[in-house]
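Shipment paperwork, digital attachment
Item: protein structure file
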Amino acid sequence: MSRLKLLAANEQGVPPLGAGHSLCQGCGIPIVVRTVLDAIPGKKVVISATGCLEVATTRFPTTAWNVPWVHVAFENAAAVASGVESGYRALRRRHRLDEDITFVAFAGDGGTYDIGMQALSGALERGHRFVFCCYDNEAYMNTGVQRSGATPFGASTTTSPSGEVGLGKLQERKDMTAIAVAHHVPYVAQAAASHWYDRRDAVLAAVRGRRRPVPADVRAAGARADRRLAARAEAVQAPVRPEERRPRPSRPAPGRRGLGAAARALRVVPRSRTSERSRSGSGGLSRRMAA
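Attachment content:
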C-alpha cells in the first residue's frame, strides 16, 4: 500500500483535524498536524499548547478536532503529556485499560524553544513515551511576530526590526534538535511541511522508538542545516576529512622557462629558500624548475 493510502486508511474516514478552523491561508500547521496524526495507526490523544494551533482550532463554542484533545498553557505541554502518559501506563498495569493509545503533543517554537523548554527537557530526561511535535514558525506569530529562540540571525521581527532602527535579530537561532539529541532519547528528527512523506516516516520511527539519523537537510526555511546531527544521534564519530593540499605548479614545457614560470615557482617555494635562490640569480631558479 502506498504512503498516501496508508495515511487515508489511518483516518478511517474522519480527519483528525477537520474543517472550520481559522488558521491563516497558506499556513503549514494543518498539513503538519494531519500528516503527523494520520501516520499513527490506532487511537491518538493530542495535547496542545497555547498558540496558533490552539487559538485557531477551538473558537468557543466550536472545535475542529475529531480526536481527544487537551488544551494546556503555553509552557507545560510536555509536562501535561508526561502526566497523561504516566496515568495511562498506571491503568495498563492495573488491567483497567487494555487499548493501545499514542500521545502526541503539539507546540510552536515559543512553547518549545523558549517558554516550554524546561518542561520538555524534564520529559525527555525522564523518558516519557509520547511524540512531541514542534511546528516552527521562527517567531511568535500568534501574538504579533515577536522574535523567538528559533528566529534566524538577521531576521526582522517586531521586537528585532531591521532597517534604519536596527539590524534585525543579532543572535543565532537556538539548535533545539541538538539539545534534544543531548538528552539521549530514542529518536529525534527534523522535517519540512513540504516533505510529507519524510515527515510520515519520521513519525512512525518516533512511535516505534527506533534510532535513525536526523534528516537535517529539510529544515525550516531560513535556517542552516547542521549535518553533524546525524552523527550525534547515532553516536558515531564523523570521518576525518583529508587535509586540503595546495595544488602543485605545473611543470613548464621544455624551452619555455621565462619570467612567468619563475614567478610561479617563487610563489610555492618557502620564504627561507626563496631568499637563498634570489642571491644565486635566475640560473638557480631555472635549475630548480628543471629538477
